[in-house]
Amino acid sequence: MKVIKNKILIIVLIVTISIIAICGLVTAFILNYNVSAPPKIEILDDGSNIYLTTKMNDNYDKYKFIFKSIEGQIEIEIETENNILNIDELQKNGLKLGETYKITSQYISENKGNNSQVSKPIEWPAYDYLDIPLIDLNEEENILSWEEIDNADYYILYVNGKDFEQTFILEENTFNLNQLKGDNYKFYVSAFSDLDYYETSPNGEILTYEYVKYFLPLEEVTFDNLDKKLYCIGSEKLDILNIEINGISYLYKNFIVTEEENKYIYTVDLKIFQEILQIGASPATVDDYNIYNGEITYTK
Known about the structure:
The chain is mostly beta strands and 300 residues long. It folds into 3 domains: 42-126, Immunoglobulin-like (Sandwich); 135-211, Immunoglobulin-like; 220-298, no CATH class. 12% of the residues lie in helices and 42% in strands.
């Protein structure tokens, strides 16, 4: 009877040890493999780049990102050792901008059957940023230029002078500084697309340049002696005219300006002068950035 009790006790001990061992194995498995799903994927946008990320889990070997288009025609699976993907990697693997995807993730183990469950999906309309235009300057010709940006439909050039700010909407990737007044400028360019899945490019590097403008001589100067009006024609817009009457120079700001066929016509009323024997005109030097050092154009 005592022997039987001992055998039963031994069996109980063996079963108990076995249960403890199994529990230990299960605990070890749980500690090493989190069979629950990863949290939802996060979209990170820093204003110039886009990233998709899932929570790190060092107990697994890889991460799987699964993309299914809303229409169900596209399915992409990407396995990677990193828990983060950028938009360039996604496009290389077949992701199409403008498509809306349901995205999930999964932890992958080298041991068969030990993969995690799939995360809950998020919906994401795939988009990207246009590249940054980098400005170059040809100082001899006073031309700003930048490389054409893929998928850009137009550019906005931001011009910041000492006393003003101005923007130019451009379809070309060049800009002639001659259409500006002389000043100490800061320039930068952004690229824009008409497609809603391309975001405006981040602002490029600022180019600082002291642009000194040397005015060209007036092309023609005529005087109507009956109406006492002086007519000056030139290719540049001027704020001040230097008018020489009978050998004396006067600076004029009050005149009428009209534009015809890329020419500026300046009309100056000179009724205050009773007798005009000789008359001529030229642009006037305004400051250190806007200079005229040419000859006066006289009436014929």
